[in-house]
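Page 42, continued from yesterday. The earlier attempt failed because a stray header line got pasted into the input along with the sequence. Redoing it now with the clean sequence only.
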Amino acid sequence: MIKVPNTIGAAWDAYKTLAGGYDIPFLKFKGTPRVLDIGANVGAFCMWARQKWPGCPIRAFEPQPEMWPFFLANTDGQVPLIKKAIWHESPVTLYTKEGNCLLTGPTKYAYHDGEPMQAEAIHPKELPPCEVLKLDTEGGELPILQHYKHKPSVILVEAHCEKDRQKIERYLDADYEWVLGELWIRGYCEMKFVRRDFLPEGGNMSQGGYTDIDPTEIGG
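This time it went through. Structure tokens are written below.
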């Protein structure tokens, strides 16, 4: 049983994650992937990743203090939690929604009606390489991708408006294939990208192929 804040949004977000919302069923790794969870929230993605890839090393980042007790309870203290934001400036102003600590991020959207908060941040260029990068930072996704100096095998990212979705797709288009995703209201979208050099030869993963990825071959 996952522990979440007492809101419908929190329960839904955890449910869709644990139900495989970030899964790419036909993707196979030869080894155990390294995982970065940026915007770890209550730890639902970490819980899912540990089941998907047993023994995978995960580093999780979450700057919102209200999330920390839930994360630690849900991961049994087995996943290192870095209690900082990821951003190219520190401290960073994070915008909030009154009564919903899930919706905290560096981009001010129309629904942000709460008091802004300040958080210490780690620059994206200081992050280590990984095979799986998950990003859900309420509008900070594209700048983080632009400053991150490594090229993960898989990028799992949420876009929070249509403009952000288009910008993320254009930025990753040269090296990545958008293989799966759910498009919800007003461009809010869960996007799953795989690096093109790992796509099956002559194939398209969105049509049901899969690729074997060997983490030891990733130089960063």
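Notes: The first strand starts at residue 28 and ends at 29.
Reminder to self: strip header lines before submitting.
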